[in-house]
Amino acid sequence: MSQSHGYMKALKCRECGREYPLAATHVCEFDFGPLEVAYDYDRIKKSLTRAVICSRPQTMWRYRELLPVAGEPTVGRQVGYTPLVKADRLAQRLGIRELWIKNDAVNYPTLSFKDRVVSVALSRSVELGFKTVACASTGNLANSVAANAAAAGLDAYVFIPSDLELGKVVNSLVYGANVIGIKGHYDEVNRLCAEIAGKYGWAFVNVNMRPYYAEGSKSMGYEIIEQLGWRVPEHTVVPMASGSLLTKVHKAYQEFIKVGLIEDTKWKMHGAQATGCSPISSAQKAGLDFFKPVKPNTIAKSLAIGTPADGFYSLKVMKETGGHADDVTDDEIREGIRLLAECEGIFAETAGGVTVGVAKKLIAAGKIAADSSAVLCITGNGLKTIEAMTGHVGATREIRPSLREFEALLAHDQPAMVAA
Ligand SMILES: *Cc1c(COP(=O)(O)O)cnc(C)c1O
Ligand SMILES: [Zn+2]
Question: May I ask the CATH architecture of the domain 84-105+215-389?
């Protein structure tokens, strides 16, 4: 294969295996199957060793042979390598031996895992000669496309449901992107974007650029393995919107085995959704291979996709690995956010509350064994979804700037302390 494509070989249909050139295209012309990037794993195996990885900067690009760019990345070069936090206090609360938080709430630059996929999609868009980038988003993707496009000098059009959280709207506008609010839910935004993408010569990161974009999620899986000391956790709990992240973390684990970086072990992939938008978890719990589309109604707006593009494939991965899915109510989402904050000092957005809440349920049900190791993927930052917690976190107690008033307050809380 030509050196000019880096380690990529072609785009390949997931259904029939037909190959396509490495262009901005995402569906097979014969069966409408999704296209996926195919790599030259033999060459990657020769180039990508643990020593090489460790010698590179601590960003997602330390695994660049396994990411779909032909040359050096040009957008989002600082993204990734977020902390993997040993969560002992949360482990105790949930009743599990070994628990880790993969904390993409502090990803660079826009505080969600979407910086990974956008960094790849925009780097590839630049390689393919695009000047304008776009996306259909539930919020975080819009933030990341807007920020990374600004830094790269690209024009951006981001399309979002018009009822998103204020933090996510402002976080797209501030970078000077064209932010289009659609009066409808995400699935309607996405349908419109498919029409627009067909008509204008733009790089739609999650439409015509989707094969490249989706591969960026694998970097979260590579990092988990490296940060755990080159091993795969027995259980990984992943929030699901389209279901793509879950399938790509699983693919990352498989690829590290394929290129000889780790031993082959067993693991289970578990999916987390909000009850108010649970097409994938409902299908998994019913033992079905296909989901039924739903109309979303949940505070977890970042996960509110009623017709998930990778729903079918995420169900397949859970089935193959023996994993489970579950979903949690809005109140359980808030409880999950509070648990993570109070135990580990990490303020996650609603999707994080979904992940923690579902992990709690799966551990309680014995679907994640108490004597095992688990990683929870925390994918976004709580400061962007303040509305979800407003009125649910207690209230500030106000006093005048007087020692007497403070001591009256303290005497009420802890009489012994004031007496001393
Ligand atoms: C987009 C998103 C997800 C899920 O992404 P998919 O790959 O579409 O399943 C999870 N968490 C957050 C915070 C997101 O923004
Ligand atoms: Zn096909």
Answer: 3-Layer(aba) Sandwich (3.40)
